[in-house]
Amino acid sequence: MLKAEREKYAIFISKLSEAAAKDFLLSEHEKLVDALAKLAQANALIENCNRLYTKLNQDYDTLKADYDKALAANKELIVLLQKEQDKEKLKIKAMYGMKSEKIDAIADLAESRFKEPVDESRNEENDADSPNKVKNTASGNKRSGLSVIKGKKKRNRKGETHESRLKSSMDEMPHLITYDFDSEELDRKYGKWNWRIRGYKTHKVIKKINSPYYVEVIKTPVISVGLEHRLKTERYENPIIPKTHLSSSSMAEILYNKYCLSIPCYRMASYYKAHGLDISRQLIIGWINKCVPNLLGPVYDALKDEGRKADCNQVDETYFRVNKDGRKPGSKSFMWVHATGELTGGHPSIVFCFEKTRGTDHLRDYYREFSGYIISDAYISYDVLAEESKGRISSAKCMMHCRRNFAIAFFVYANESMSDDQLADLEETKALLLIRDIYQAEEPLRKLTPDERLQNTLTEKTEASCLI
Questions:
Q1: How many Cβ atoms from other residues are within 10 Å of residue 295's Cβ?
Q2: What are the distances in angstroms from CA 44 to CA 7, 38, 41, 330?
Q3: pTM of the full structure
Q4: Per-residue pLDDT tens for 12-66?
Q5: Where are the alpha helices (DSSP H) in 126-192?
Q6: Handedness of CA 69, 72, 77, 78 (dihedral sign)
Q7: 428 burial type by CB count under 10 A (0-12 exposed, 13-18 middle, 19+ buried)
Q8: 442: helix, coil or strand?
Q9: Which residue, 5, 261, 328, 404, shows the most beta carbons closer than 10 Å to its own?
C-alpha cells in the first residue's frame, strides 16, 4: 500500500512544473519537520511520565513498607500499653488495696448474710402489719462473676454496721435528757384531764454545743518591796511560745486541725476571722513551726523510746513528693511508720519518720538497740536489717500483704464468665476465705492479754482433741 502511495505521489509531482513542485515539496517538508518536532515532544513527555510513574511506584512501595512497619509497631505499642496499665493497676492495688479485695466482693458465699436497713431511730421492731415495715425488694447484680445483693448494709471487719458503730459511740457520750411534749396541745387534742403519761419512747440525736472563744486576762501583781518601796513585777512568760497570745487550748486546736483533720492554715485563718479573731495564716504557720520542734520534740523522742522497748514493732514505708527540702520540686521522699504490736506490754506508740531515701540506714539507726520482731512487707531492707543484727532482730511478714497477693491473683482470671461454684473452687478464693476465717477467729481475742490468748488456744485444742 505504501508503494502504491509513493507511485501516485511521484506521478503527481511529475505533472507539476519545476517551480510548483519545488514549492510543494518545501511546504511538505516544513509540515514534516513540525510533525517530527511534535512527535519528539510527545516522546519526551511519555518518557517523563514513565519516569514519574516508576518513581511513584517506588515511593508507593516505600510508603507501604513504612505503613506496614508502623502498623506492626502500633500493635506492639498497644500490647505494651495494656501491660503497663495492668502493671499500674496491680501496683496501686498492692500499695493501697481496694474495696473489691474484700471477701464479700470477691466471694459472696452462702454464709455471708446481711440484713436490710432499718430505721435507726426506732427502738421497737416493726409490726407485721405496719405499713413502714422494710421489705426485701433488692435485686441481684453481677460483679466479678459473683452474686452481690444491692442495698445490703456495709460492714467493717468486725462485722458491725455503720449504724451500730454510731450507736456504740453515742452510748459513751454525755447525755442530756429532754422531754418533748406540749401539755396544752395534748389537752386540745385529747381533752383536759383525759390523758396521762404512761412512759416515754426514746429518740436520740447528736447535738453540738458551740464554744465561743474568749480572752483570758492574766494580771500579775506589781509589788512594792521594803521601806524604799521598790517596785517589783512578778515575771510572766507564756508557757507555749514566749511573747505570744497562745494558750495550750488554742495551740492544741491548731495542731489538731492541721495534723488530724488536714485543714489548711488559710482555712483556719478564715474560721477564726468568722469568730472575730484576726489571726493571719502567717501567724498560724509561725506558731506551728516554733511549737512543734520545741514542745513535741521530747514527746516524739519519748514515743520512739517507748516503741523500741516493746518486743514487736510493725513497720511500713511509703513515698510522697516534696517541694521544698533543698532539692528540686517534686523530689521523691519517704515516710516511715513504726507501731508497737497490740500484744506487747507498755504504752502503745505510733511514730512517723520523714526520710529522703528508702535505704536501710534509717532502719539501722532506729533499731540500733532494739531486740525482737519486726512485722513488715517483703521489702528487702527489713531482711538486710535482720541479717545484720545477727539474731537480735527477727523479720516477720504481714498477713495482709500476703492476702493482697491472693486477691491480685484472683483478678487475673476472666471471672466475669465464671460461675459462683467455679470461683469458689479457685485456690485463690480458698486462700482468701481461709485468711478471713483466721481473722474472724482472732477477733474475739483482741481484748485478751497474751497469756489469756494462749490459755484460750490451749483450751480449744484440748476440746478439739477430745472430740476426735
A1: 15
A2: 34, 10, 5, 68
A3: 0.52
A4: 666 666 667 667 677 777 778 788 888 888 888 898 898 898 989 899 999 999 9
A5: 162-171, 183-190
A6: positive
A7: buried
A8: helix
A9: 404
